[in-house]
Each structure stands twice: as structure tokens, then as C-alpha cells.
Amino acid sequence: MEKHITLGVDIGRSHITAALVDLRSGHILDDSYRRERINAKDSAENIIKNWGIVIKDIINSSYRPVSGIGMAFPGPFNYEDGISLLKDNGKYEALYGLNIKSLLAEELGYPKASIKMMNDAACFLTGELFKRDLEGCNNTIGITIGTGLGTAHYKDGVTEDCKLWKTPFLKGKAEDYLSTRWFVKRYKELTGNSVKDIRALLATDTQDPAFEAIFEEFSVNLADFLYTFVRKKDALSIVIGGLIIPAQKYFWRKTAQYLYEKMFYSIPIHIAVHGERAPLIGAASIGHH
User: Fold this and answer.
1) Considering only CA atoms, which of 90, 123, 100, 111 is closest in space to residue 10?
2) Which residues pair with 112 in a beta bridge?
């Protein structure tokens, strides 16, 4: 039996993405890729059933045997036992305290022991580093900036979720300044106009002084946060991903410059290349173990 084909699943706040991954090459098998919207406020029974439909569709339509399932979940979550601890955020609250691993195994008719789960930020970093030869990657911190702030650390083959989104930062917590909502809020404050997200912000006048001011401020904040994170983990490199990536040309150089001025040496900053496929690759790699 081929043991190198594993199913990677990424549970997002409003969707499920899944695909088969060939762990010999680190490539996603494109014909297996699925992305479906999920109502995160639905009943536990319906959420599990709808996840199951997507996963079963991939497994049943594949002519290749699937050696395991790895799943990327947002926290808080008991990943070892498969129990959801998500509450008070309006997402998947019906799953709180339930053993997701057992419920999914039952729904899929699949062995519980063959389903593995890991934090989504940790899966992102694992996926970005998988089969890539990056400078300093044996001790790397990763951050994803999107609707929230994800932080992870990879060292000696082990990836951990660092949960730094809630650390005190400026007048609040880190996620208040390093997420989509900060851009939306700051743009409104400076211009009086509303934008929905980073993509919409990039469609505005990039020559506008307000646009430049926002990315200047963001670059300083990001450099400050990364400096603390690097020092905390003695990291040798950084990987940045998430919804912020389309805006990289407006912050990447400045952030690297400000970080250099704080550290007095240059640390490699790698921009994520796999996008939303990274958690799938990372999840698949843990599904194999």
C-alpha cells in the first residue's frame, strides 16, 4: 500500500478546505482540492455532517489509498484528544467540549487513531517549511496576519502554536494591531471612508498620504512585534503569511529595515508562497505520523 498520500484539512472560520497531499514531493493533488462554505453557527450535528461530506467526497473519488487525515483547527482546542474549546466568539460554539475526533471518525467510518489534529498557525508554518530549503529554517518563527493573528515556532522538527495574539501590545493586545480589522479601523480614522478588508484597501489610491501613513505605522508595529518574538525564541528566520501577503510590497522592506535597526543584524524574512494551501500541507504531514 502507498503510504505517502495523506488528506490535509483546514477548518477556517467560515469554510473547510481539503486536499490530498503527496508527502514525497510536498505537492497537493489538484484534482482532489475542495473548498466549501460552512455555517459556523450551525448545530454540532450539521457542522460535523458537512465537514464529513467534503472529506468523504475526496476519499471516495480518489483511486489512491489515503494513509491518514491531518486537520488544522483554530484554537483554543485540545489537539491531542480532539476536543474543541472554542467559545464566546460566535464560531463553532455548538462544538464546545465535544470530542470532534470521535464524532468525525464515526461520521466518516474511519479509524479514530488515523485522524490527527494541530493548530492552524502551526500547520501553516509546517506547510511553508515542508520540502523547502530556507535559510535559518531549523529555528523559525511564523506569523499569519488576517482576520486574526497566528503565531508559531518551528525547531528541530517540532512546530508549536505560540498563542501570542493575546499578548499586551501598545494600548491593547497584539491582534488589535496586526490583523485586518486594524487596517479597516485605521483607514476609517484617517480618511472617514470605509473599506471591508485589505484587498479593498489595496484597491484605493495607493498614492494617498493616508495609505502611506497606514503602512508606515503597520511596518513599525510589525517590526516591534517580530523583534520581541525573535528574542523570545532565539529564532534564526521568519516566515510571514496570511491575507496580508497581497500588500507585501507596501510593508516588507520597511519592516525588514526597522527590524534591522532594532537588532543590529539582518534576519531572513521569508514571505509565504503556499497561501491557503500551506495549512493543508502542514496538516497532511502530521496526518502521516
Assistant:
1) 123
2) none
At 162, list the grid cell: 505560540
For residue 25, what is its C-alpha cell?
Answer: 514531493
Residue-level pLDDT, tens digit, the chain, 289 residues? 457 899 999 998 889 999 999 999 989 998 999 999 999 999 999 999 999 999 999 999 888 889 999 999 988 899 999 999 988 777 899 999 999 999 999 999 999 999 999 999 999 999 999 988 777 788 999 999 998 899 999 998 899 999 999 999 999 999 999 999 999 999 999 999 999 999 999 999 889 999 999 999 999 999 999 999 999 999 999 999 999 999 999 999 999 999 999 999 999 999 999 988 999 999 999 876 5
> Strands 139-145, 5-11: parallel, antiparallel or unpaired by DSSP?
unpaired
Q: Which CATH number fits domain 135-267: 3.30.1330.10, 3.40.50.970, 3.30.310.180, 3.30.420.40?
A: 3.30.420.40
- Enter the CATH code of domain 5-124+277-287: 3.30.420.40
Q: What is the chain's alpha carbon radius of gyration, rounded to the nearest angstrom?
A: 19
Give the three-class secondary structure for 240. Answer: strand
Assessment of whether the complete model's pTM goes beyond 0.70: yes
Does the N-terminal peptide bond of residue 76 adopt cis geometry, omega within 30 degrees of 0?
A: yes
For residue 120, with 0-12 CB atoms within 10 Å meaning exposed, 13-18 middle and 19 or more buried, which class applies?
buried
